[in-house]
Amino acid sequence: MKNTPTTPPTPPTPDTGRCRELRREVPSTVGLLADAGDFAAMRDYASFAFDHRDDYADYLHHMDAVLRSLTAQGIHTTVALFDPEEYADYCADHGLDPDSAGTRTRFTAELAAGAGALPYTGQPIEELAPLLVDEAVRQATWEYATMLLAGAGTCADCGEDIGRSSLERATHILRRLITGAGPGHHHLVCSIPAEEEQLVAVLHAQVPDDPGAGPRVDGREGLDFTTVLAAGIALGGAGGLVLRSTTEGFRDRVHGWRLDGGRLVTLTAAAVFDAYCTDADTGDPVAPEPGVEYCPGYEVDTSGPHH
Length: 307
Hints:
The chain is of the alpha+beta class. The protein contains nine helices and ten strands. A hairpin with a 5-residue loop joins strand 7 and strand 8. Helix 6 packs across helix 8 (219-235) and helix 7 (162-181) packs across helix 8.
């Protein structure tokens, strides 16, 4: 019997309504240029939607419209910082044409996998770029501090891993810092000079009046802060930590510590005043804030270096 070829079945015509519904379940990533300089660099590509007749304000206006349109369609959108220099390096490493919308889309999609992206929740477009820059700096700081801890090696005296023990001590110190501050809102800043950059971490903690309730600390901030403090402990060099407490009905209080040989040492009230009332860039005195009490640090580090 002669075989006759069979005709494959015709696929059904897509239901446009269902396609729209499914589109709402597909997340989007938008790459945002941080400033006018980055925007000018991208205008050199002929395939970029803007040319030299446009300015950064035009770009932000249109990006705002894109973000609002995606939100109106019920699409979850993540915004990532689009760096032209990183983009050029990416294209060179992968052998891709940088003057292509498809290549920019691919690069932007990979940005979403990083930790420096933020969800779009209707923020004003002018606020998004600074937030993304701050997030990128925070991520870079954490990565560098983590690298320092990983390369700290082992203690020559006891063979203990310095990075791991420093991280454990930093976690213990942070707990004592917050507990010792008492009820209220606490703003902590840790600054560590390292070989390649100044490591700075900021943490906000809320301690309720109820002694049975624990302090509220953002998990990501807590991780960043302990990692940077641990790096300072592991390095065994200079560094500083300032805690400012705000409690209803009381003056704001400022406490201070310095790192010395891998230990966090308390500062006197006079030293806290000098540190807080001196311009970090010029060294010139700064007038003390009204309603602020400059206090000595309290004991938070009871261990020796790396133990």
